[in-house]
Amino acid sequence: MRKQRWVAEVGAENAAFLATRSRTAVLASEYRPRDLGDGRVAYDERSLGAARELSEEEEGAISDDGEGLRVWVGDDAFDLEEQAVG
Prior knowledge:
Blueprint: E1 3-9, H1 12-20, E2 34-37, E3 40-44, H2 45-52, E4 62-65, E5 68-73, E6 76-79, E7 81-85
Antiparallel strand pairs: 1-3, 1-7, 2-3, 4-5, 5-6
């Protein structure tokens, strides 16, 4: 079975925030986004699903529309790119 993950370049401060202080960061580890270093954050299927449950006003909310899959921090949206893992 092919695993998927989605990665966004959000900057070091935002990556640390999403991985450690966002609302999804307090969930069980399999539902948290991962700070990959170099200002990148990654979501797997479970963590992406948890982030999709956030309201659009919350930091780390996910939108999926005509402009693509994006994670929001404040007023800034960052594109999530799908990557195959394994």
